[in-house]
Structure formats: C-alpha cells, structure tokens
C-alpha cells in the first residue's frame, strides 16, 4: 500500500522502506526485500521489534544468527548491532520506539 505522506525509500539495493504510521513515541515501517538483498549491519538507540509478514530471512543480532519465517518475530534492544539477509523475497514490519526521525 502506498501512502503519499510517507514516500518509499530505497536504503539498500533490493530493499524498499515505507513508514506506515508514526507519532513521537512509536513508528511502524514496512521493509520489502528482494531475494538476496541485505539490510546492512547497523545499530541505533531505538528499541525495535520485527515481524516477518512474508518470506524468509537470516537475522544477525549481536552474536546471534537466526532464521525467521512468516509469522516469526524478534526484538532488537537499543544499540545492539543487527542486520539481515533475505532468503526468500518478503516483507518485514518493524516497530521502533521512540520514532526514527531519520526515516521522515
């Protein structure tokens, strides 16, 4: 679903990001991945939850490597280095608290 007030961004090759809803305390974001696309390793001060709405992903969280499929979710604490690799094209729904102002 395209929301004109929240444009689609391409943060990495094969990845599209779109804010779905937000206020100062919480942000909901859709990330759509092509097979093989990666979410680069990074960290941020926000607590993040991720729900796999479609596809399959290999997640890296701190020293852990996890494979998540449709219906799985993960919480990433503040300032923990994380990223992912898309194993089968899909979509992640991420929630951030507080809001990621850098996505607006």
From TrEMBL:
Domain Cupin type-2: start-end pairs = 31-88
Gene3D superfamilies reported for this sequence: Jelly Rolls (2.60.120.10)
Record's InterPro entries? Bacilysin_H2HPP_isomerase (IPR052535), Cupin_2 (IPR013096), KdgF (IPR025499), RmlC-like_jellyroll (IPR014710), RmlC_Cupin_sf (IPR011051)
Write down the PANTHER family for this protein, in alphabetical order. Answer: H2HPP ISOMERASE
Supply the name of the protein. Answer: Cupin domain-containing protein
The organism encoding this protein is Paracoccus aestuariivivens
